[in-house]
Amino acid sequence: MSTSRPELKAPPEIYYDDTVAQKYTTNTRNQQIQAKMTERALELLNLPPGKSAMLLDIGCGSGLSGEILDEAGHVWVGVDISPSMLEVALEREVEGDLFLQDIGQGFGFRPGSFDGAISISVLQWLCNAETSSPTSSPPFRLNRFFTTLHASLSRSARAVLQFYPNSDDQGGLVVDYPNSRKAKKFFLCLFTGGSSSSEGEDEDNIERVQQGRGERGKKRKPPKEATKDWILRKKELYRQRGKEGVPRDSKFTGRKRKTVF
């Protein structure tokens, strides 16, 4: 097995320090890959068209996936174990609620809180034991993760988890570009009938990082006091992701139009 895989080098809260968090977030290729995988995860969630959903972004990092959820009109909550990643997310003023959370110890959300969940390149981190403690073993951490994730999802919700398995013969997966060594991506798609488990009510192991700025079911709007800055920032993000047809910047960008009676 290649030692180039980051989960084999150090625990995520150590590996993603201040330097790596900034470098990862500002890398154009990372932004494009993250955007494509998040869009694919949203597609696999198969949410009702035209409706805003409350989604959980597991391993949200600096909020790259959250921006895609924003663009799709959804409200989201993000959890991550790396303080440095969450600090970058705060600096970038992402729209979601953020929690500092070790997902291997389980979630503390109320049962049925989310209409769906996504995770990009995170699940493989739970397959490594960092200490000899029973609560650090992969079986324990995976059990806590899936049990409490199931409890936090609403009835008939889906969870789509993109990850990098140790081998290609692990079942239950959607595989994109199966014949490509570099482009191949694995998505674990889970379905739930809901849960009444009380495990989701234990909030002692979650640290709240940021208060959300929107109501469930309502699409986010740009802040009125910084409309032009908001538009310029979004246009730059679109350009970095390689989107075509982004309007050029001008002195008229963000200018209010006169009302015609």
Automatic annotation (TrEMBL):
Amino acid composition bias (Basic and acidic residues), ranges on this chain: 223-252
A biological process term (GO) from this entry: rRNA (guanine-N7)-methylation
Residues covered by the 18S rRNA (guanine(1575)-N(7))-methyltransferase Bud23 C-terminal domain: 201-259
PANTHER family documented for this protein: 18S RRNA (GUANINE-N(7))-METHYLTRANSFERASE-RELATED, METHYLTRANSFERASE-RELATED
Annotated keywords: Cytoplasm, Methyltransferase, Nucleus, S-adenosyl-L-methionine, Transferase
Region annotation (Disordered) ranges: 195-261
Cellular location(s): Cytoplasm; Nucleus
Pfam family, one: WBS_methylT
GO cellular component, one term: cytoplasm
UniProt-recorded name of the protein: Uncharacterized protein
Segments forming domain Methyltransferase type: 56-128
InterPro entries assigned: Bud23-like, Bud23_C, Methyltransf_11, SAM-dependent_MTases_sf
The family this protein is said to belong to: Belongs to the class I-like SAM-binding methyltransferase superfamily. BUD23/WBSCR22 family.
GO molecular function (one): rRNA (guanine) methyltransferase activity
